[in-house]
C-alpha cells in the first residue's frame, strides 16, 4: 500500500513506524537507547549493516520529530526533559488528554491507583514543607499509606482524572505495597535511589506536569509565596531533586546539572534573587533528608538496617514539629 | 455482521482516506476541537463532547476515529481484546451506525502512523462434543460467526521485526515480559505441533522437562497459565467424565492463534533444532500446514491485500 504523503511530514515510512512501535513499548527513550533501535531500522532500510555508534543525535532528533508530528492528532505528544540526576535527556510519549480510554491503559486496580495517589500526595504534601523539600519517601513511609486515612471525597485520579474512588476504598496489604512500589519503578513512574527513596521519575514528571501543578499549587498564590511544585531557575522544568537557596524563604531552585552551567555564566556564585552565597549544600529531594546530621548519625549507628527503621519518618516529622514552632533558625538542613 | 461483508466494504478505503485527511487538517485548524487540555476535563465532558451536535459532522467523525485509535492502543496495552461492543460503548456512543466508516478510517490511521492494524480474532472453536452438538441444534455453523473482537498486530515488513526494534515492552518489566513471551510461545508451539491439543498430563510433562512445572520467573506456573487463558493465548477445555477425573485439554486460544503464527512457530522449532535433519523443512511444513519458504511475517500484509481485491 503506498503512503498518503500529504499529511505526514516528509517520507514517513516503515522505519518511522518501527521507531514509533519501539518507543511505545518502552514508554521513554534516550538518545543512547535509541541508537541500537535506529541502527536496526537503518540496517533494514539500507541493506547494509549500520552500527549503533554511527547513529547521530541528528538522526534521533529527526525520528523523534516525525513521530511527534504523527501521533499528535491522537492527543499524544512526545515531550522531553533533562533527567534530574543523570545527565541525559529523557523523551516520553505523553497523553495530553485523560479520558475513559486511558483508564484501561493502567493495569492496576482502583485500590492500587488510589494507593499510588496517596503516595504522590505524600511526596508533595506531607514530605514537602518549606523547611524540608524531600519530595520522596522510603518504603516504611509508603507502607503507612497502604490504608486510606479517611473516605476520599471527589478525589481526582492520578493520571486519569477518573472517578474510581466511588466504591468503598480498600487498603493494600503490606506485601502488596512492596510489589506495587516495585512495579511503579519497573513501569517507569517512580525511581528508587540507592538509599531506598522513591521519587517521581522523569517520565512521570513529563506526563503529570500539569496535573501536579493543578493538584498541589495554589493558582491564587501571591508572588513569592512558597508553592509545592517549583521550577528550576535555569531550565524551567519541575525540580524534585536539586539545590535550593541558603535563605529559607527564597524560592530559587536549581537542578544539579543546571547549577553548574548557570553559575558558569555568572561572575559570582550567589542566588540570582536574594544574592546570598549559593553553597550548593541546601537540597531539594532526598538529600534534604540524607544530608541531615540526624540521618548520618542514625546510619552510622545502625548501618544498613536504617532502611527498615522509622528514622527517615522521624527526621521528617521532627522537621514538621519544628516548623509548627516557627523558630527562625537556619534549621537542620545542613 | 458476517466477515464477508466486512471485507467487501474495505474496498472503500481509498476514497475515504482522502476525505479523512481533509477532515483532519480542518480539525487541526480549529482549536476549539481540542477537547482535553483544559484543567476541568473529566469523563462526563468527554462524553458530551462525543455527542457534539450536528453541523460539526466532519469533525465529530474525526473525533471518533481518534477515540477508536486511542481505545485500540489502550486495549492492547492491557492485552484486552478490542471488542465491538466496547467500541460501541466507549467510542461511538450515539453514533453507533457509523461503526464501519469509523472503524475503517481508524484502521487506516493505525496502519499509516503506527504500522499496526486491528486483526479480527478467530471465534473460539467448539471443542467438546457437547458444544458441537449444541451448535448443530442451534443451526449455527462455525464458519459464519464473527468473534466481534480484534487485537492489534504489527504490519511492518519482516526486516523491521528484529530484536532491537520490537524488543519486549518494559511493562511490567523488560525481563518479565521477555520471559512471558518466551513461555507462551513455547507452550503454543508445543500444542500446535501436537495437532492443536495437548492433554493436561502431557503439558505438565513438558513443563517439568523445561523445569517450569511449579514456578516461572514471574509467578507460579498455574497463575501464569491462568493469565494466558484470560488473555486468550490458551484455551483450557474441561470435560466431565462420569466416575472419573475431568479430562483437561489445552488448546491455542484466539489471541494465541493470531499472535503466534505458524511461521513464528517454525522459527522457534528451527532455532531449537539448530542443525536440522534433511527432510526437516518438509516435515515441519506438514505439521504446521504452511509454506516456509516465503517471507514469513508478510502474511498479514498479503492477507490485507487479498481482501482488497
Automatic annotation (TrEMBL), chain A:
Residues 146-174, 294-334 are annotated as: Disordered. It comes from the Eukaryota. GO terms for molecular function: ubiquitin protein ligase activity; zinc ion binding. It is found in: Nucleus. Keywords: DNA damage, DNA recombination, DNA repair, Metal-binding, Nucleus, Transferase, Ubl conjugation pathway, Zinc, Zinc-finger. Residues 319-334 have a biased composition (Acidic residues). Residues 297-307 have a biased composition (Basic residues). It is an enzyme of class 2 (transferase). Gene3D superfamilies: 3.90.1150.220, Winged helix-like DNA-binding domain superfamily/Winged helix DNA-binding domain, Zinc/RING finger domain, C3HC4 (zinc finger). Residues 232-274 form the Non-structural maintenance of chromosomes element 1 RING C4HC3-type domain. The keyword Acetylation does not apply. GO terms for biological process: double-strand break repair via homologous recombination. Its EC number is 2.3.2.27. GO terms for cellular component: nucleus; Smc5-Smc6 complex. It catalyses: S-ubiquitinyl-[E2 ubiquitin-conjugating enzyme]-L-cysteine + [acceptor protein]-L-lysine = [E2 ubiquitin-conjugating enzyme]-L-cysteine + N(6)-ubiquitinyl-[acceptor protein]-L-lysine. Belongs to the NSE1 family. Acts in a DNA repair pathway for removal of UV-induced DNA damage that is distinct from classical nucleotide excision repair and in repair of ionizing radiation damage. Functions in homologous recombination repair of DNA double strand breaks and in recovery of stalled replication forks. Component of the Smc5-Smc6 complex. This is Non-structural maintenance of chromosomes element 1 homolog. It comes from Xylaria hypoxylon.
From TrEMBL, chain B:
Residues 61-121 form the MAGE domain. Gene3D superfamilies: MAGE homology domain, winged helix WH1 motif, MAGE homology domain, winged helix WH2 motif. GO terms for biological process: DNA repair. Residues 275-288, 300-309 have a biased composition (Basic and acidic residues). Residues 1-61, 275-309 are annotated as: Disordered. PROSITE patterns: MAGE. One of its GO terms (cellular component) is nucleus. InterPro entries: MAGE, MAGE_WH1, MAGE_WH2, MHD_dom. Residues 1-12 have a biased composition (Basic residues). This is MAGE domain-containing protein. It comes from Xylaria hypoxylon.
Amino acid at each position: 500500500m503506498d503512503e498518503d504523503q500529504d499529511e505526514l511530514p516528509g517520507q514517513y515510512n516503515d522505519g518511522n513506524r518501527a521507531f514509533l512501535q519501539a518507543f511505545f513499548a518502552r514508554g521513554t527513550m534516550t538518545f543512547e537507547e535509541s541508537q541500537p533501535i535506529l541502527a536496526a531500522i537503518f540496517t533494514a532500510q539500507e541493506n547494509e549493516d549500520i552500527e549503533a555508534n554511527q547513529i547521530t543525535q541528528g538522526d534521533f532528533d529527526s525520528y523523534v520529530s516525525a513521530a511527534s508530528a504523527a501521533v499528535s492528532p491522537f492527543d499524544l505528544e512526545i515531550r522531553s526533559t533533562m533527567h534530574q540526576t543523570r545527565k541525559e535527556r529523557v523523551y516520553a510519549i505523553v497523553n495530553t488528554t485523560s479520558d475513559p480510554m486511558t483508564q484501561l491503559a493502567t493495569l492496576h486496580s482502583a485500590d492500587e491507583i488510589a494507593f499510588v495517589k496517596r503516595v504522590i500526595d505524600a511526596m508533595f504534601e506531607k514530605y514537602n514543607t518549606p523547611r524540608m523539600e524531600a519530595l520522596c519517601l522510603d518504603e516504611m513511609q509508603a507502607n503507612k499509606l497502604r490504608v486510606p486515612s479517611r473516605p476520599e471525597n471527589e478525589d481526582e485520579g492520578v493520571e486519569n482524572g477518573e472517578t474510581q474512588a466511588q466504591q468503598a476504598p480498600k487498603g493494600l496489604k503490606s506485601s502488596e505495597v512492596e510489589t506495587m512500589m516495585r512495579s511503579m519503578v519497573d513501569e517507569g513512574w517512580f525511581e528508587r535511589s540507592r538509599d531506598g527513596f522513591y521519587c517521581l521519575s522523569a517520565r512521570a514528571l513529563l506526563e503529570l506536569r500539569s496535573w501536579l501543578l493543578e493538584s498541589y499549587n495554589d493558582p491564587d498564590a501571591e508572588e513569592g509565596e512558597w508553592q509545592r511544585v517549583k521550577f528550576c531557575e535555569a531550565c524551567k522544568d519541575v525540580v524534585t531533586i536539586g539545590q535550593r537557596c541558603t535563605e529559607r524563604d527564597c524560592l530559587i531552585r536549581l537542578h544539579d546539572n543546571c547549577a553548574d552551567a548557570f553559575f558558569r555564566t555568572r561572575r559570582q556564585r550567589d542566588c540570582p534573587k536574594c544574592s546570598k552565597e549559593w553553597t550548593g549544600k541546601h537540597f531539594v529531594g532526598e538529600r534534604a533528608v540524607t544530608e541531615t546530621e540526624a540521618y548520618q548519625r542514625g546510619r552510622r549507628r545502625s548501618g544498613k538496617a536504617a532502611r527498615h527503621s522509622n528514622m527517615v519518618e522521624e527526621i521528617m516529622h521532627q522537621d514538621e514539629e519544628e516548623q509548627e514552632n516557627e523558630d527562625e533558625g537556619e534549621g537542620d538542613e545542613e | 455482521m458476517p466477515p464477508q461483508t466486512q471485507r467487501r466494504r474495505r474496498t472503500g478505503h481509498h476514497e475515504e482516506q482522502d476525505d479523512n485527511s481533509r477532515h483532519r487538517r480542518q480539525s487541526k485548524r480549529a482549536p476549539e476541537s481540542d477537547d482535553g487540555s483544559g484543567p476541568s476535563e473529566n469523563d462526563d465532558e468527554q462524553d458530551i463532547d462525543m455527542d457534539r451536535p450536528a453541523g460539526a459532522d466532519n469533525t465529530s467523525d474525526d473525533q471518533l476515529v481518534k477515540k477508536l485509535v486511542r481505545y485500540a492502543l489502550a486495549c492492547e496495552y492491557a492485552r484486552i481484546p478490542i471488542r465491538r461492543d466496547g467500541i460501541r460503548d466507549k467510542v461511538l456512543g450515539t453514533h453507533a451506525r457509523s461503526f464501519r466508516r469509523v472503524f475503517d478510517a481508524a484502521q487506516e490511521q493505525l496502519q499509516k502512523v503506527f504500522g499496526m492494524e486491528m486483526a479480527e480474532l478467530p471465534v473460539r472453536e467448539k471443542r467438546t462434543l457437547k458444544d458441537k452438538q449444541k451448535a448443530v441444534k442451534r443451526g449455527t455453523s462455525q464458519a459464519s460467526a464473527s468473534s466481534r473482537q480484534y487485537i492489534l498486530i504489527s504490519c511492518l515488513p519482516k526486516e523491521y521485526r528484529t530484536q532491537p526494534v520490537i524488543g519486549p515492552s518494559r511493562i511490567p518489566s523488560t525481563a518479565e515480559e521477555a520471559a512471558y513471551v518466551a513461555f507462551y510461545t513455547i507452550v503454543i508451539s508445543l500444542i500446535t505441533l501436537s495437532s492443536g491439543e495437548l492433554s493436561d498430563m502431557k503439558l505438565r510433562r513438558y513443563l517439568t522437562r523445561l523445569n517450569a512445572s511449579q514456578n516461572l520467573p514471574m509467578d507460579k506456573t498455574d497463575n501464569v497459565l491462568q493469565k494466558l487463558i484470560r488473555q486468550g493465548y490458551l484455551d483450557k477445555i474441561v470435560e466431565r467424565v462420569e466416575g472419573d477425573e475431568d479430562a483437561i485439554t489445552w488448546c491455542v486460544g484466539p489471541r494465541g492463534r493470531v499472535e503466534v503464527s505458524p511461521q513464528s512457530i517454525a522459527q522457534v522449532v528451527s532455532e531449537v533444532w539448530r542443525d536440522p535433519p534433511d527432510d526437516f523443512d518438509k516435515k515441519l511444513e506438514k505439521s504446521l500446514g504452511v509454506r516456509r519458504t516465503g517471507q514469513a511475517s508478510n502474511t498479514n500484509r498479503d492477507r490485507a491485500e487479498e481482501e482488497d481485491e
